[in-house]
Every structure is written in structure tokens, then in C-alpha cells.
Amino acid sequence: xxxxxxxxxxxxxxxxxxxxxxxxxxxxxxxxxxxxxxxxxxxxxxxxxxxxxxxxxxxxxxxxxxxxxxxxxxxxxxxxxxxxxxxxxxxxxxxxxxxxxxxxxxxxxxxxxxxxxxxxxxxxxxxxxxxxxxxxxxxxxxxxxxxxxxxxxxxxxxxxxxxxxxxxxxxxxxxxxxxxxxxxxxxxxxxxxxxxxxxx
Length: 200
Hints:
By secondary structure, the chain is mostly helical. It is 71% helix and 8% strand.
């Protein structure tokens, strides 16, 4: 069983690296939170490739909504007030929450860009490796076919040569003496006439 599978099926690890816990840790310990975001990629792989950065960006945007509404009412003179907006903005923790929202929005954007680039790089690399392997396999196959052809040719040549070197008993049509010749043609040892082996 792979290490990723062990972690992805472990309930405690899944709880620690769940998005709510990651968001809380990012608020109190930002560096550890970023490490946990990276750990999510290791544990879940392709399944949560874009979910984590999208959730981080959405959470950051939600926390920045009151500040955005404040800027909109101040700059565009909407002529009406949004209920409870001033209460939210005057809440003593809101500046910290707004800074946190800005931080996780930036983290989400950076993680999304880096994960997309990494995915593209890994995908391109795996395609190159696959292409090289198939090219190597086809080259190897072509070489094997060529070697087989050469071996067949050598074997045929050997068979032909061995047939030519095999001595044949041929009776001379002129003097009637039996001669032993290699190949298909030769000369009679008695009368020096040309003799030929015609096979069986």
C-alpha cells in the first residue's frame, strides 16, 4: 500500500488536513497552514487539485465583502446605507479578519497558479516520457525485425552453401564413369567432359 493511500484513508490525518482546520491554522500560524495546504496535495492528489485554492479564495472574498461594500458606498454615492455594515466594520476583530481574508485570498491565488503550472509541467513531462518510451519500443521492434531478417538471410545462405558443398554422385553420359562433384556442375575425372547434377 502506498504512503498516499495510507494517509488518505487515515481519519485523523484527513481531519487535520481538512479545509476548516487548514483555515483556522492559516489564521493563527500562517506558515504551518501553508504546509498543510501542500500536505493536502500530497494526500488527495488529483481529486482536490483545484478545490483547495478555490475554497481559500472564496473564504478570503467573503471576509473582504464588508470592506468592498464600504468602498462601493463611499466612491459611488449609492444614496442608501447597508444594514449592519457599520457594525461589522466597527467590530474590533474585523480589521484582523479583513487582513486574514486578504492573506488567504493571495495564498489561494498563488496556490492555484503554482498547482496549475505544476500540473501542466507534470502532464507535459509524462507525455514526453510516454512518447520517448513508445518511440524507443518502436525503434527496438524495428531493430529486432531487421536482425531477424538478417538471421533468416544468413540461414538461407548457409543452407544454399551447405547444399553446394554436399558431394553428389554423377554418372558421366560420355564414358559412363561415376564421379563425385560438389555443387551442380563439374568435370569427369576420366574423359574431362562437363557433367551436371540435376537433383533427384
